[in-house]
Amino acid sequence: MITFEEAMETVLKNAKPLPAAAARIEDAVGRVLLEDIRSGIEMPPFDKSAVDGYAVKNAEAEKGQPLRNVGLIQAGDVFKGKVGPGQCVKIMTGAPLPPGADSVIMVEDSSEADGFVKFLKPAGKGMNVCERGEDIKKGQLILAGGTVISISHIAVLAAVGRSHVKTGALPRVSLINTGGELVPPGQKLGRNRIYNSNGPMLSAMLKTDGINAEAVIVRDQARSLKAAFSKGLKADIMLISGGVSMGDFDLVPGILKSLGVKCLFHNVRVRPGKPMFFGVKGRKLVFGIPGNPLANFMAYLAYIRPSIRRMSGRKDYAPEFETGVCSGKFEPKTPRRALVLSAVRADTCYSLTEVSNNGSADILALAQAGGFTMIKEGGSLKKGEKAKFLTWQ
Description:
This protein has helices spanning 4-14, 58-61, 151-159, 198-208, 222-232, 252-258, 293-311, 363-367, and strands at residues 2-3, 20-24, 37-38, 48-49, 53-56, 67-73, 87-91, 103-106, 110-113, 116-119, 129-130, 141-143, 164-168, 173-178, 182-183, 194-195, 215-218, 237-241, 262-266, 268-271, 277-281, 284-289, 321-326, 337-346, 350-354, 371-375, 386-391. By secondary structure, it is an alpha/beta fold. It folds into four domains: 2-18 and 170-311, 3-Layer(aba) Sandwich (Molybdenum Cofactor Biosythetic Enzyme, Chain A), CATH 3.40.980.10; 21-40 and 146-168, Alpha-Beta Complex (Molybdopterin biosynthesis moea protein, domain 2), CATH 3.90.105.10; 48-130, Molybdopterin biosynthesis moea protein, domain 3 (Molybdopterin biosynthesis moeA protein, domain 3, Beta Complex); 321-388, Beta-clip, CATH 2.40.340.
């Protein structure tokens, strides 16, 4: 049986980055950018109006006399001509500033009659004009390689004309729940059956990392499991929830071995999640997670999410441990490394409070928590003591 730290190290050692891929920018959120993005254009690419109003030469507007309106410019138009002495041009937001004009007076500050416009306020040179290149210069670095693309990056990528970018590829994931007692939520619950909570939970966690994987429920029968695992091994990562302990119907490790999966560890000195299985087949990763929900949740945070991130090329793939202060005692009374379900309150520092629960299947307690406080093997924590915690908030 290996330690929790050895288990995390073994998993990450085998989570090899996948080959780079070209991704549509709409599909690139959450992926790692593997190239520097520089703008091939200026933004804006021309002097343009920031408002609906009238394009004027400021010196003419300052004379206080009505100016003759000689045209209309909408966004995308090309104005044929020039704003001469005593003239102005009606202009819409985003339209190019015409030659001869250097300012725009808002329509609210003007009145037009018989083709002449009277201005209620002076313009001020450059007023309401977005100058060419004021946002982005040609050749300017927009996003550096290694950036994790967020939704706030998509508009700027599109604005400089990029439809695709070179990114790390997200791994394909298969998700399998074992157990004849499991019923998908929404269906009628028969006698001695329970709803499948692990599948939707893991599927939702995968979606936060940009991966779509629907849970498949398979009965604890060797033929059914082998067929499901054979199909699941076509993905880069296979997640199996349940069937990895030592019971008569915990068939997963043996079937995986028959399919050529090499076991790298099976059992970790940690609670929850002791009967954790991890194996590889070539570059493919296989996680066998004990069936209780807390073990599933912890395994995703400690092993699976870091693997996904490392395989996709991210540098920030390590499990997200923070430091907090215990608001009370933590006495898990186990010889294993304990990850204790905790409420997390952010003040001047993180405050950690143990969430009372009825064991590793207590999903209501999980819903009331914000992290797992980490306690050394056979240890405990006192009130006011600092501790590391694994968080998902």
